[in-house]
Amino acid sequence: MKAIRIHNHGGPEVLAYEDVPVPEPRAGEARVKIEASGVNFIDIYHRIGLYPMNRPCILGSEGAGIVDALGEGVSEVKPGDRVAYAMIPGSYAEYAVVPAVKLVPVPDDIDAKSAAGIMLQGMTAHYLSHSTYPLQKGDTALVHAAAGGVGLLLVQVAKLLGAKVIGTVSTQAKADLARRAGADEIIQYTQADFLAEVKRITNGQGVHVVYDSVGATTFEKSLDCLRPRGYLVLFGQSSGPVAAFDPAKLAAKGSLFLTRPTLFNYTATPEDLAAAARDLFAVVKKKVVKISINQTYPLREAAQAHRDLEARKTTGSTILLP
Ligand SMILES: NC(=O)c1ccc[n+]([C@@H]2O[C@H](COP(=O)([O-])OP(=O)(O)OC[C@H]3O[C@@H](n4cnc5c(N)ncnc54)[C@H](OP(=O)(O)O)[C@@H]3O)[C@@H](O)[C@H]2O)c1
Q1: CA 158 / ligand 1 centre spacing (Å)
Q2: Is the dihedral of CA 297, 303, 306, 311 positive or negative?
Q3: Of 312, 313, 317, 318, which is best to mutate to test ligand 1, by the most ligand atoms within 8 angstroms of its C-beta?
Q4: Residues 195-204: pLDDT tens digits?
Q5: Which residues, at least 6 apart from 277, have a Cβ–Cβ distance to it below 8 Å?
Q6: What is the C-alpha separation between 124 and 157, in angstroms, rounded?
Q7: For the CA of 261, the nearest atom of ligand 1
Q8: Of 2, 33, 4, which is closest to residue 19 (Cα–Cα)?
């Protein structure tokens, strides 16, 4: 089969489109014929070695497709089932083997591209807004990179929960997208000081929660955007990792909360995973949350997909088709 592998960590040029053997499922695993693979920022961290990988390895953390073979003892799925999964490496390929307990069924009226686009980013938007900081009606939330993959979904879910949403974006085109997703206020943080703008919009009060996936360039000011006892949910680092931090600052800035959550811990049990996927597919089916697959590339062009994601050229979700 064809797959995108890395032999060394590095830039997009290390992504190699290669022939590799079709993997055989072991006990507890199912083999999925991949129909669509999601491209996520975590794939870049795997590629550059921020999250080191045993190499050579097939990149990709999320896929949707059809079960085509089972390892011993698998009862959760059967050949022919339409499934999707996230946070299991190896989806930039024609086939992937996945622990059967990590597969969720895909409803008939959701196509493979949408399923692959919604699993990782959608479940992230879901746990951030329902579990990490459960948004209440009337809360004000600041969502950085609001036109991104997680961002566009988080804006929509936050609005469904009754929050007021302030989004940050880098361009006018991204501002339009985030506004259409429901953001009440948009700040172009590449042109305006987002801290001053948040203070202005909230009449000096600050926000209840900041969902910060940008990291290095936003972290300090994100803390200052919070009202006393507010929550900084730092869930990514698309501009680079945050420097070492003195917890005493949380006291000085108003008894703040800081958390660095990962999807892995919020979907670790089959029950949590099934509940998040069920909720998500339900709102997509009802069309109250719209999944925006704004970039699609053939599998062999994965390197270009990475270049575009890193260069802030993408919006919404990005998909590779084998
Ligand atoms: N913890 C978790 O469970 C979890 C799960 C999923 C994703 N994440 C994290 O969430 C973040 C977003 O993931 P995503 O896949 O949805 O990506 P994305 O938000 O679609 O893309 C990244 C966006 O970050 C913004 N950005 C700001 N500074 C940047 C810089 N120097 N370089 C590149 N981008 C920059 C850009 O938006 P603007 O141009 O508008 O600034 C860019 O489009 C990533 O850090 C990812 O690792 C975490």
Answers
A1: 18
A2: negative
A3: 312
A4: 999 999 999 9
A5: 84, 104, 119, 123
A6: 11
A7: 1
A8: 2
Query: Is the beta carbon of 38 within 6 A of some atom in ligand 1?
Result: no
> Ligand 1 centroid to 40 CA: how many Å?
8
Q: Average pLDDT of 239-247?
A: 95
Of 82, 103, 117, residue with least CA distance to 25: 103
Strands 29-39 and 62-70: antiparallel
Phi, psi of 243 (to 5 degrees): -70, 165
User: Measuring CA to CA, how many Å separate 113 from each of 12, 103, 292?
Assistant: 23, 16, 10
Structure tokens at 199: 């203070």
Measured in whole angstroms, the distance separating CA 14 from the mean position of its chain's CA atoms is 23
The CA–CA distances, whole Å, from 275 to 4, 160, 246 equal 31, 17, 36
What is residue 168's three-state secondary structure? strand
- pLDDT tens readout for residues 138-188: 999 999 999 999 999 999 999 999 999 999 999 999 999 999 999 999 999
Contact 281, 107 (CB under 8 A): yes
Specify the pTM: 0.97
Do you know the residue count of the chain? 322
SS3 220: helix
Tokens 């009449």, residue located: 203
Q: Which amino acid is at 8?
A: N
Mean pLDDT computed over 280-303: 94
DSSP 24: P
Asked whether the bond before 56 is cis by omega within 30 degrees of 0, the reply is yes
- Encoding tokens for residue 286? 């009802």
